[in-house]
Input
Amino acid sequence: MTGYGFHPDAQREFTNAIHYYLEKDPQLAGDFISAIDEGLQAIRTNPETWRLLRDNIRRYLIRRFPFGIYYTYENRFLTVWAVHHLNRKPEEWIGRLD
Output
């Protein structure tokens, strides 16, 4: 299994989404956290499996929730660049790569 880390803005997106779901229903927030954790485990196990979007950016779609985990995998390390809502500006997080 590979090591990983979150870009600070990706961590903030994840935290904000948790707070949003907590306001709706604490169980829903727990389900969201579990779905993200499952996604991260799957990515860490097989990082090159998911769709290559551009350059070396890949996206894992979260089941049940309209979010994607956008990441790169280089030198046996996974960097999560975004935990992004799929109905928002799809490319707004791309500037983080610069």
About this structure: Helices lie at 8-24, 26-45. The chain has one domain: 3-86.
